[in-house]
Amino acid sequence: MNDHAKPWTFLTPALIIIGVFFLLPVVAALALSLTDFDLYALTDLHNLRFVGLDNYIDVLQTPLFWKSLLNTLYFVAVGVPLSIAASLGAAMLLNSPLAKLKGSFRTALFAPVVTTVVAVAVIWRYLLHTRYGLIDYGLIRLGLDPIDWLGDPHWSMPAIILFAVWKNFGYNMIILLAGLQSIPIDLYEAARIDGASAWAQFRHITLPSLRPVLLLVSIITVAGYFQLFAEPYVMTRGDPLQSTVSVLYYMYEEGFKWWSLGRASAIAFILFAITLLATKILLWIGQRGEASA
Amino acid sequence: MICARRPRWIAAAAFVLLAACAKNDPNQTRLKFWTIGREGEVVQQLLPEFERTHPGVRIDVQQIPLTAAHEKLLTAFAGDALPDMAQLGNTWLPEFVSVGALEPLQQLVDQSAIIKAADYFPGIWDTNVIDGIAYGVPWYVDTRLIFYRTDLLADAGFSTPPATWDEWATAMAAVKQRQGEGKFAVFFPLNEFEPLLNLALQQSDPLLKDNDTLGNFQSPGFRRSIAFYAQAFRNGWAPKMSNTELPNIWDELARGFVTFYVNGPWNIGEFERREPELKGRWSTAPLPGTHGPGGGAAGGSSLVIFHSSTNKQIAWELSEFLSRVEQQEKFYELTGDLPPRRSVWESPALAQDEYVKAFRTQLELVKPTPKVPEWERITDELAHMQERVARGGEPIDQALKELDARADKILEKRRWMLAHRAMQ
Fold this sequence. Notes:
The structure holds two protein chains of two kinds. Chain A has helices at 5-32, 39-43, 54-60, 63-95, 102-114, 117-127, 134-141, 156-181, 185-193, 198-226, 230-235, 247-257, 261-292. Chain A is an all-alpha fold. Chain B is α+β, with helices and mostly antiparallel strands. Chain B has helices spanning 8-22, 39-43, 47-53, 66-78, 93-98, 106-111, 122-126, 150-155, 165-179, 194-201, 220-234, 249-254, 266-274, 312-323, 325-335, 348-351, 357-363, 375-392, 396-410, 412-423; strands spanning 29-36, 57-64, 85-89, 129-130, 133-134, 137-142, 145-149, 186-187, 208-209, 214-215, 260-263, 282-285, 288-289, 292-293, 299-305. In chain B, α10 (194-201) crosses α11, α11 crosses α18 and α18 runs antiparallel to α19 (396-410). The radius of gyration of chain B is 25 Å and the shape is globular. Chain A binds chain B through residues 36, 38-40, 42-43, 46-47, 49, 151, 237, 239-241, 256-259, and chain B through 67, 70-71, 74-75, 78, 95, 98-100, 191, 242, 244, 247, 373, 377, 413, 416-417, 420.
């Protein structure tokens, strides 16, 4: 065996696994999105037709697709900043020298991440219930009107966002906590001697030092939040008035309710393109910030 | 032997597996039966008798929630994991027939001493027949008709429920006038296609044309139906609301928010349970038609046997057992689901119930919805169309043209396949 072949020998097993379990399905899905694969084709492959880009054109002309895209963008635009703010807040509290019982708090705040969506969604449905829910009970005690969280098309998405943020903030919290711990303490000491306020310290030391970590966290969160599915699937089934239909939920309905697997694959690739674009924009913003800093 | 050299844990695992298998008597036949919703809970009370008369047979009932049933059944078909038999909504039947998942039952029906097609309401039986072959046995039925407040209708000057569309329109106008601002005569939930569909099925014009390959929504019949439906909103007889905006319709009927409500038989039980103080002040009536009761959609669930089953004989015997008159009577008592056989309706429990009487009249007149797999998707478009007309005031001509266009598009593959098949 010559030196050239050696690395390949080591790489082959991994490459085979990636090829079979990642590359092949992606290529198959791409091929599927160019056909009208449906229930008829499932029974008899003679019923399969190559339709070129028709699925893509068709999806882009469907009002429900645009509605689902708007719903998803709403979820991403509100959910991601809220989620990162919650993670950062929690991480800073945990990092504070005044905090006691750090270990148990860290575990408790991380716990929602490792729970199953379906199980906690059941509990959240109780919390959000109009008549028996703890949240509306609190609102009434505060003298506010109760909100029909999951039945009112204006409140259903905020309810889903609330649930998703609670469920996910712990993950980013751990990453940000690691970032915070790597900021040298001398910087803060020097700032304090110069008389910088807590806000100024946060603004000029914490945030700039966390920039690469924040960029990473934003990219992971944006990509994750674009794939909103389990929350509306379990909590609202896309209702009321299709206000919680996300792109992925729409794809699921096309694929598994109507069995238009060709169309469903096309939606998947459109979502992929959108997510890729969003990530590129984030990276561009991150790089520009670095250049100007 | 190779086995002797295997490590001990494999032997232990094998032992556990064997112990688990021991429960599975090789002489015992296990019949897998999937049910949807509450019926699955109730049917288990009927099964011990069947198991007693069929030694060596065990029925495994698996309940599937309605919201997941369609996906689960189709996925099971795609993955070759279907049970022996199932309860299937009769509007789903054409889809499963078209993919060849169901066992044709016509021959078994012809020979059966228990299941006699003539005893079933013709419209209901027809939903199970595709190209002259029966693929399912009706288990219980569903159709939509009027629930109404007798006292409020009497206040408006009518002692009997309306029997024709004209009478209904007159009654709605009178009720609205008497009840005044903030109250309404009728509730047609805008996200439910059923009320409009039931009215449209009364017409002689079919909903789809050309061998069910094109939409026929611009026909005079459908035009009449949507015109009747839309006028209720235009004249302020019906609130522009969906059922999510009015989640507890029984309370709303009790406080007179609406006087008429078009819905299915399970509401009888809901009414009796939720609004006991309303007793004597509400009733049911067949859906009005052009000249007297006009009928509606033949809905409900059927018992089907899957083509892949290896226990078809036992599955058929269970279908027969559940179709027996005395089992159907018990099933009605347990669920309130209306039976599809006329002879079961002779039983005192049904014959003397004033609320189900109207259903009996209507069931003789019900018609199946178009028997194509695409129909469910077309009803989705139907619901969107009616909401645009009722809520947004879209002109009917334009809405129907659009609906036909969308139906044609959904049916495109069906047209292509039929043309393709004709060429071969």
